[in-house]
Amino acid sequence: MSSGAPFITFEGIEGSGKTTLSRWLAEWLGAQEVPTLWTCEPGGSELGVALRHTLLQTSVDPLTELFLFLADRAHHVRTVILPALHQGLWVICDRYTDSTLAYQGYGRRLNLRWLRRLNEVATHALEPNLTFLIDVPVQVALTRTTQPNRFEQESLAFHERVRKGYLRLAEREPERFRFVILDGTQPIETLQRTIQHTVQMKFCKN
Ligand code: TYD
């Protein structure tokens, strides 16, 4: 399914800086008078806030965890993302379907083929037009996190699998231009300039 306005997602492990950068992009677009919505997963809707709380606090088995993320996403897409895109708003989303492939697929080792299919069902096959993957070494990322949640308390090996999973997803993406991998250890101004340039080149033709 495609909609008129761009749908841009930010991905990466915890502490990669994607929330700061995605918020910055939404603010920059707003300053250019581009109608923009910033949102996130999990927790981008009212129901999502409750699901997010459960997901971050309660230990559950991988399959239950997966279905909670998918419930959050299904509701988010139907009640927030698609209505915004149909109104012509640019949507900037902090985490989306690639998080499920990286965390539940590579991290928890659930079957990637199922996950792709379930993502497709949950989202009405709505795919991002552009995804920034903010890549940082696990050791660097973890020193940036304070008050670790349930995911941040996972083992180093888990985080390494998630990081490598993201890189693999970006490499094997059939439409390779959808992913832009950024080195998250660069100064924030450099990252912002690259993001701005990429968005201008891709979506602002005149
Ligand atoms: P959050 O505090 O939002 O982390 P961050 O600021 O890094 O985005 O916590 C969300 C956690 O949920 C994060 O550790 C990644 C995880 N997650 C999944 O495992 N699968 C998913 O599909 C999504 C969207 C998030």
How is this structure best described in words?
- The protein has 206 residues and is of the alpha/beta class.
- It has one domain (7-203): P-loop containing nucleotide triphosphate hydrolases (Rossmann fold, 3-Layer(aba) Sandwich), CATH 3.40.50.
- The protein contains eight helices and five strands.
- It starts with 6 loop residues before the first strand and ends with a helix.
- The structure holds thymidine-5'-diphosphate.
- Thymidine-5'-diphosphate (TYD) binds at residues 14, 19, 41-42, 56, 69, 95, 99-100, 103-104, 149, 151.
Radius of gyration: 16 Å
Span of the ends, CA to CA: 26 Å
Order of helices and strands: EHEHHEHHEHHEH
**Poorly predicted segments:** none
Apparent shape:
globular
Q: What's the CATH architecture name?
A: 3-Layer(aba) Sandwich
Q: What is the mean pLDDT?
A: 94
Q: Helix count?
A: 8
Q: Main sheet, how many strands, which sense, barrel?
A: 5 strands, parallel
Structural domain tally: 1
Topology:
Elements: E1 7-11, H1 18-31, E2 36-40, H2 46-57, H3 62-86, E3 90-94, H4 97-107, H5 112-123, E4 130-135, H6 138-144, H7 156-172, E5 179-183, H8 188-203
Parallel strand pairs: 1-3, 1-4, 2-3, 4-5
The site of thymidine-5'-diphosphate has 13 residues, from helix 4.
